[in-house]
Amino acid sequence: MKQYEVTNSAIRRLPVYYRHLKVMESKGIEYTSTKELSQLTGVHDTQIRKDIALTGLQGTPRKGHVVTELIEAIEDFLNWKDTNSAFLVGVGNIGSALLNYNKYEGAGLKVIAGFDNDPSKIGKEINEIRIFPLSRFSDLVKRMHIHIGIITVPGDYAQSVANLMVESGILAIWNFTPVKLKIPEDIIVENVDLYRGLGVISRRLAEKLTKKK
Amino acid sequence: MKQYEVTNSAIRRLPVYYRHLKVMESKGIEYTSTKELSQLTGVHDTQIRKDIALTGLQGTPRKGHVVTELIEAIEDFLNWKDTNSAFLVGVGNIGSALLNYNKYEGAGLKVIAGFDNDPSKIGKEINEIRIFPLSRFSDLVKRMHIHIGIITVPGDYAQSVANLMVESGILAIWNFTPVKLKIPEDIIVENVDLYRGLGVISRRLAEKLTKKK
DNA sequence: TAGATTGTTAATCGATTAACAATC
DNA sequence: TAGATTGTTAATCGATTAACAATC
Predict the structure, then answer these.
(1) Do both A187 and A88 map to the same domain?
(2) Domain count along chain A
(3) At B188, is the secondary structure helix, strand, or coil?
(4) pLDDT value at B132 more than 60
(5) pTM over 0.85
(6) Which of A127, B18, B21, B171 has the smallest set of CB atoms within 10 Å of its CB?
(7) Is the CB of residue A111 less than 8 Å away from at least one CB of chain B?
(8) Over the stretch B68-87, which tens digit does the pLDDT of each residue have?
(9) Residues from chain A contacting residue B191 (CB–CB below 8 Å)
């Protein structure tokens, strides 16, 4: 397991603060405190102070943090000012939804092409993003120097798509399947398991409904 | 914060084992061990043993666990044999994707109606699921004794939809917006933050690309 | 029997929270 | 100055991993 100076959990919390800060900015609010952010996000204020410290930003005792400075610091830290182009493989339900949305530019990512094997999809466009046959993936990744691949195929195909991505030179994979990918450990992988919560909902609901009061 | 006997993290791991067990079952494999499951899932074998213990199932030293028994035990534990009907609010990109998929029945959940305020969507069907105006939500929840609500509206509307759900008698919310909902603590909430990984991808990729080797 | 695997207790690790001095 | 808030160190908590006896 690779050791980073900054943990993933810290990195994941920063966007949470960021969203609230953007709302404050749009309302013209100048200052905020970690106490206020804590109330909004549910994260402990000490935790927030540590996370902010990671960005290198310092606050002012008694006043707190300047909202715009904090936004800037988080954007810098997450490298959200640069936009990385990404390729998406698997234009099904979720894949199409992601292409239609495609508003991650503020978060450093922009999908610029989709790939699928279904002839009825190839050549079409979704939200102005062209769908190519999977056979062209490798070539286009190399020619366009793409670093990020998004996997939205059915689980059975996830590993083979991941292999293709790694061979093609992809450095980071955003995996929307529940499959644990076997890939070199220096490749960045972020898993999104959409249905993770279903066990919890089902179990907790059963507990609640059988509890006689 | 409510205290449960079983932690959510344990509940979230069980479906991970479950998926692999189903594959084994389909291949006709009779026995498995926690060591094998550990290799497949990346979860420590001691952890898996503890999780299985929660279901009440006992294994056989030297042989391991009977695959079908383990599947059965997890289904029982998660109450995955009963199917709960659910209503989905917000028939946009993600909402439509979830309706089109709607294969959670094995996981105790089935979406039976969608709700939206967009007149162009109301009255239509997606994957044979009818879309109703939001104004009918409360009435239908009560008449059909629905317990689960799914929120797939834009973040700005999430809290008001959650309020409506709670007032209508919904007991569990599957929230696909990044908004931290303010609701009574006895309501079950599972959050799916689709874009949680974007900070990690952006930051780690920047670290990787700036590292001179 | 020997040995693989379970089930459980103890040890470790990491993340979260509490405490408090520093500061404007 | 008094007091709110930061920044940091210490304490706590929970989750993960190690160790090992029990068992078939």
Answers:
(1) yes
(2) 2
(3) strand
(4) yes
(5) yes
(6) A127
(7) no
(8) 999 999 999 999 999 999 99
(9) 197
